[in-house]
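Regression test case RT-17, inverse folding.

Input:
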């Protein structure tokens, strides 16, 4: 993006202007790939940090900012480094911590409502952050702690001041129906004639009342994420949700009028073996029976290890092995007549390098986009250790993100990883 905008991607070539600041979950989890690229990084939840950055810039006149960024870039960067959660390369001391979690009253919502947007006339509202689940691969569960949600009272205030242009509210959360006020919130919105949609529903949250409500407001399709068709592999991943829960939830949703289901599966998971494919086929057949026929498709994504999760210690299988397992699953799903969407293994391997890499992967990206090198050559030129995601790590392993103080203790993560290896279950955090 920087290169295409005519901005030199490497910080050392920009001379302080323009100021480039990055943030968000991926950057917070592992900022190291960007330390040679950006001027500053916001770690953890950014709502309050953003306000403080804007106040700091407002306090300085335009001339001051220009002068300081061109002649004395240090003054501005020093001030940024004093904001909690800001990592400013060259100015922050080691061990910068994540910013404290914000209260749900700071959760964002759309401020521009227009029929021209991707979601026309819709206000997206972050109704919850984090997740009550504890899946061992999940970044959302590890970096957004504790699980927080917008209560009914906040929605009552929201609808009072709602602009008539808003025809629909999209509830955004990893686990929309885990909000204890889910039922009264949806009923409140429906009673005001506002359509409601959901980003993501967990099968384990859908009791009779919630499933009926989801159908009664005209929800046409629902996504569920069993992650694996094998209950054993799913449990090993820390998603301790039995097969039956998916079948029962889907049957209830179908009875309530939901016409289409999308199931999300991971491939290349720890604990997969020759029986996983058979178990997955049985799962799909039982799911089809539960919904009374066709009307579901499956997305298959290779599992990518993430920092601050128990799987940071895991050795991701090699490309060939993941590709083989993926081909077998795809063949089986197509034989069952299901629509299948497959994520490329190569793209997942790149993600793994970005996710677990250090500043060398950032340099490789710059070689690739600026220098026109092939990706393989760019990795070599930057000296990236491409086998790191495929190595089994231990308590002694130096991770790039050791440079920051994250939201979870390494000892806790390793204990869960060891339990997964030993007992086939990542257990609870
Ligand atoms: S249920 Fe989904 S959001 Fe929650 S921890 Fe598991 S993968 Fe993450």
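Golden output:
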């Amino acid at each position: 993006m920087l290169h295409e905008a005519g901005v030199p991607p490497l910080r050392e070539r920009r001379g302080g202007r323009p100021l480039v600041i990055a943030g968000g979950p991926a950057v917070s989890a592992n900022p190291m790939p960007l330390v040679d690229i950006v001027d500053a990084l916001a770690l953890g939840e950014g709502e309050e940090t953003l306000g403080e950055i804007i106040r700091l810039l407002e306090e300085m006149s335009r001339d001051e900012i220009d002068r300081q960024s061109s002649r004395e870039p240090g003054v501005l960067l020093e001030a940024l480094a004093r904001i909690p959660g800001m990592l400013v390369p060259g100015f922050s001391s080691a061990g910068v911590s994540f910013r404290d979690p914000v209260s749900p009253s700071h959760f964002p919502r759309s401020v521009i409502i227009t029929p021209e947007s991707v979601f026309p006339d819709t206000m997206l509202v972050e109704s919850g952050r984090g997740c009550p689940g504890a899946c061992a691969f999940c970044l959302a569960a590890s970096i957004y702690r504790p699980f927080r949600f917008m209560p009914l009272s906040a929605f009552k205030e929201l609808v009072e001041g709602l602009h008539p242009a808003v025809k629909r509210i999209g509830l955004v959360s990893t686990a929309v129906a885990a909000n204890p006020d889910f039922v009264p919130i949806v009923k409140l919105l429906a009673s005001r004639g506002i359509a409601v949609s959901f980003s993501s529903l967990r099968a384990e949250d859908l009791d009779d009342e919630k499933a009926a409500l989801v159908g009664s407001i005209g929800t046409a399709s629902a996504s569920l994420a069993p992650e694996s068709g094998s209950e054993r592999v799913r449990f090993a991943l820390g998603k301790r949700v039995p097969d039956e829960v998916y079948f029962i939830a889907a049957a209830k949703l179908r009875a309530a009028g939901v016409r289409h289901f999308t199931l999300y599966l991971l491939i290349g998971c720890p604990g997969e073996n020759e029986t996983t494919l058979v178990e997955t086929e049985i799962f799909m057949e039982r799911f089809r029976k539960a919904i009374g026929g066709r009307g579901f498709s499956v997305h298959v994504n290779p599992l990518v290890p993430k920092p601050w999760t128990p799987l940071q210690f895991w050795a991701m299988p090699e490309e060939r092995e993941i590709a083989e397992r993926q081909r077998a699953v795809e063949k089986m799903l197509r034989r069952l007549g299901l629509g299948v969407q497959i994520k490329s293994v190569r793209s997942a391997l790149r993600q793994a390098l970005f996710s677990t890499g250090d500043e060398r992967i950032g340099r490789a990206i710059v070689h690739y986009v600026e220098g026109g090198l092939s990706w393989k050559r760019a990795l070599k030129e930057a000296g990236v250790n491409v086998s790191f995601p495929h190595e089994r790590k231990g308590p002694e392993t130096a991770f790039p993100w050791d440079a920051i103080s994250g939201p979870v203790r390494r000892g806790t993560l390793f204990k869960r990883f060891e339990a997964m290896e030993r007992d086939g279950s990542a257990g609870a955090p």
